[in-house]
Amino acid sequence: MASLNTPMVGRQTEYEHLSSLLSADTGQALVIRGEAGLGKSALLGYVAEQASLQGYDCVRAVGVEAEWTTPFSGLHQLLDPLLQTCPAAAGAHRHLFDVIFGRELGEAPSLLAVGVATLDVLRAASSVTPLLVLLDDSQWLDTLSADVCGFVGRRLSGSNIKMVIAVRSDGIEPFDGAALPEICLTPLGDESARFLLKTHHPELDEETQRLVLEHAEGNPLALLELPHHISDTQQGSGGPSFLSTGDVPLPRRLEHMFASRVKQLMRTERDELLRAALDGLGSKKAPCPQESHYRMRSITGSLANGLLVIDPVTGEPAFRHPLVRSTLVQLATPNERRAAHADLAQIYPHDVERRAAHLAAATLDPDDDVARTLDDAARSATQRGSSATAVAWLTRAAELSEHAAERSRRLGDAAFIAGQAALMDQAQHILDSQRPVSGTDSPALVITSAYLGLYQHGDVRSTHRQVAAAAESLSVNSGAGSRELLTRLLNLLLVTSMYAGDSDAWQRTERIFEAVADRVDPLTTLCRDAVSDMARIGSNVSARLDRVLSDVTAMPPWDATFLTVAAYYADVLWRYRPHLERLVAREQNCGAVSNVMTLLHLVMLDQFASGDWTEAERTGRQVLDLTRTHGNELFRQRSKAHLGLLAAARGDVSQAREIGASVSAWCEPRGVGCLVETAKAIDMTASLSEGDYEAAYLSATSITSPGTFTPYAPQASRTLLDLVEAALHTGRKKEARLHALAARDAGLAERSPRLALLTWGTLAMTTEDESTAETLFARAEAGSSGSNFPFELARIQLAHGTRLRHGRNQRGAREILQRAAETFDRLGATPWARRAHTELRASGTGVPSFTNPQELTWQERRIADLAASGMTNRQIGERMFLSPRTVGSHLYHIFPKLGITSRAALRDALSRADDARTPAEHT
After folding, report:
1. Torsions phi, psi of 375, nearest 5?
2. Are residues 136 and 227 in the same domain?
3. Which domain holds residue 400?
4. Which end of the chain is more exposed for a tag (fewer CB within 10 A), N or C?
């Protein structure tokens, strides 16, 4: 450690930077980067000593490789002394820290909540005396702790806190993206290196000095330690020569140098140091007063030869440098390391994760007790936010399982968590390494294979066959432990069937459910009723969801996610929006990326349904970015499809159709029928948007026929309004009425609030009786669901207002059309807004006309000219080789573009449009 009286050579610039940080009148953070041996720890020692003289309190943590995978271990090292000595600092966050540090069970908090709580504790600790936070060897901090420290470091302005982070630049760099100020240490220049060497080793002759300077390469640690090594080598004490290692990197050569000293120790003392190194302690960090850890004994030889020093702050022995610790581990034989880990496991009887880590490293042969401990540790890691650690421990637990069934179950759990966390490469590795030679996967491995096949490749058909076969096989086995596995298979079968959108696949799924009816989890049955066929079996889903979704955050993540999917299909997702947002935060913290993508999809769909279209697009693009990062191709297509629907509703027809064509081209050959249907819905909405009602009708009827609702097709009931609207605009009043009556007879109004709105609205639009129509329109518009589905409500209001205007009830029409126009304007549904404003003008409201009508296509202009000349639709069709209905749909498209509502106004509108064109355009 550098002292104020013995300053480091060649680091004056860094000293000035650190002094400036301490004297600043506001909180600041600083990252010091550099390779091993350049003096990062010495600079931390310097700033700690200077801060002490200026009245600072100091807290510190040291990253340790042994704890790198343990969630929040670094944060525990940093904060626990404060929480023990100053309990008031924890304040309202006591439970949060007890959960993340494994003292209590509870819902894993979000990283944002942990960051805010950590900042609050540090601010409380610095309320009287300024506080210096030091993080050394930060490349070995666990990821969650590093993220929290980065969060805190960016928010120190206005506080009494300074933070200095030392990180090795040749290792893992968790603070790369932290956006904190940095200084990068470089090797000493020739003059400084020579001065340092002469100061500490004046006895060296010129030739030895030259060798040391040449091989130290300006590294201060090498300059200080290399002369001792040369002396030992010359005296024949053994060890590889530092100078004979050729192109080996300098840090590795320094390890060779420390190795020669380790080999001089007695066996018992080497064992002491090895235990300390493997425990991640004895590394210049202040121990928690109540923390049990291995305490080194009989270490006089290590202190004498410079492998250990006494930390002046704690009075505890500490390694001279982090490279000493890594050297000890590398030098030990496998048997020596296993024996040390076995000893260490005994000092953590109540710390399940640390005990598990040591037992896993100590155990060679299968051992069910150790496997169970690793199982418990994996559950703890999942709850505390480290899916990757849980996967590693479950995989190791499977290796140590004595029985094949437990081995298979643990591998399935590992692969399941890997799939939930979008760790597809790890899931694939588990599958490849554990797949039996016979080619017959266990049900647990089938789940892994199915996740990969479905989400990475969209292979719906073969995935469904694979999962269905495994579920059928397990249906005849009611042994212990099979229920959870069966539930996972059934849930995955539902998801696969949902994406397939295929009647045969769903019928096989239902047969499997019937075969295991007495063993199906009630939540799985509820999800089945919601996602399979709402029009047929989705009765009472909404009320059942209310009973189980009072607090989804108390459920396992996969159950909670699936239930929110069911809420979307039942059109009641808006009721659980606060729960949904908390779920997203929790799953992001727990690393369950697949769940996060599903939940964000649902957030987007709820934003779209509730009319927050700008946020819906932002959320959709966020999911799209996640799918690219994690290689989830199925979710990528799903994200694109949802964005395509949004574009179509806005009137971005070209973009919508391009997306729809792309989604269909990818999904159709893979059997992803659900998204193929969505692509058809995109085309249908785009056609409605541009007023091509004939094309819209054809798209709608490709999803479901008038008067029926195709089984197991979610879009079938959702296109109710679209089909009826397109049918009415193309003169198919009979088909429109038939479809509205089918919705009523199927009881769709009882299935969901949205379907109730659509059912009453379409019945009103298709009835001939004016009094009945008014009653039905009032019923549709008065329902509380209207505010949750403003786009559909405004379209029904547009139809209502148009009908009133044609019935010469201009005053009633204006009031309703005004509401519709305001909604369309707010949403950004431009084509519908244009129609609503056109109808408003026709009803006598002084609404400004569109001064810049959209340009007509060549075909539209030709049809408009012929219609203005007095030709009928049939005559125009014969002239242009179009059907009369197609001509009519084109005219419905043309009228809003020109700001008119009838053929009689065509001639004047075309004349005005021509007059508005520039001379160049006329030419």
Report:
1. -60, -50
2. no
3. 365-448
4. C
